[in-house]
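Here is a complete protein record:
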Amino acid sequence: MFEAAPDRPISAESLRDVRRPIGEARGLPNAAYTSADHFHRERDAVLGRTWAGLAFSDTVPLRPFAQPVEFMGLPLLITRDRHGALRVFHNVCSHRGMKLVAEPSDVPGLITCRYHCWSYALGGELKSTPHIGGVNQHSCAGFSPADHGLKEVRSAEFLGVLFINLSGDAADFAQHIEPLKRRVTAFVGAGGWPQLVPGSTGAALTLEVRCNWKLAVENYCEAYHLPWVHPALNSYSKLEDHYCFLGEQDFSGQGSLAYRFGEVAGTQLPRLSAWPAERAHVAEYPALYPNVLLGFHADHAFAALLNPLSAERTREELRIYYVAEGAESDGYAACRASTLSAWRGVFGEDVFAVEGMQQGRASPGYRGGVFSPVMDGPTHHFHCWVAQKLSLDASPASAGALPSVAT
């Protein structure tokens, strides 16, 4: 029996099928990957109700600045004040709804709307309302500028990624990130996080792929495809050396017990001081739902931010973080370049796979597929997480639990 047309709403029954035990479950239906209407529903019901990655903080200069960004069709504005603090606002003037900032701009004073010249501080406060009460009358009885500043979006920063919570009602970010941070701290050490610094060179990569953002997450969660899609990586970090793990709620992923790129390529980068010597070749790759992919190794880490551009297009941006002097020293430039080249190859090799899955979602003969009970645990965990967010009966009792935690 063929599935409903992609533009029809996703049924509660299909979401229940996703949340069944992995051996019985089906994946999300085609419309979850192809429908423009569903794409915007996901923005509000899935990504908007948790902490989603918006941008890398290093894209905003370290001076008073206003950076417009778009998030799934929503105009937002990142500002940095003279103290270095980042904030995120809806990029719209409080007066008549004009898009406030059209281009990245230095802001020596105020942000001024091009329509009626209302002006705002970088902290969002409304500072100027020219002629609001008539010619040369810049105030108005009954109007309080304090009530009409820019509308702020909750934001937080972690490992160079600026996160937002559009709905405003997610748990505090510190609480949200704690389970993942606790797991990774077992490798990097409590004092290891500040040691990870964006590389001055050999540290950035951008790809635009013709697929839904979820397919990039699903592909990243598992190592099942390794021998066929990543033969070079599989030569020094083999499929049989990989394992899966499920987070408590908002992440899952896979790891390797034998990541030896440095030995194979001859790179000699500084290592995290607290990384356990007996786990020198262990690497872990958590997908932090909804749209941030992370990788941790003894001598570098990375964050990949998935920016959903449409139902069928995603921009992937990667930053690599090296340890202390390894990030900036010219003596390590060749090692950084080699590391970036390796990851450019890995992420590039995945493009045909995620784009091929996107093309397959046009087929009524595909109805969500099935999962390997052994190899696809993290991917099923992610499907369940999305289905839980989308569930029409959203109460905890009826939405269904995520798969059990595994290590």
Q: What stands out?
A: The longest strand covers residues 300-310. The longest helix spans residues 333-349. The two ends are 38 Å apart (CA to CA).
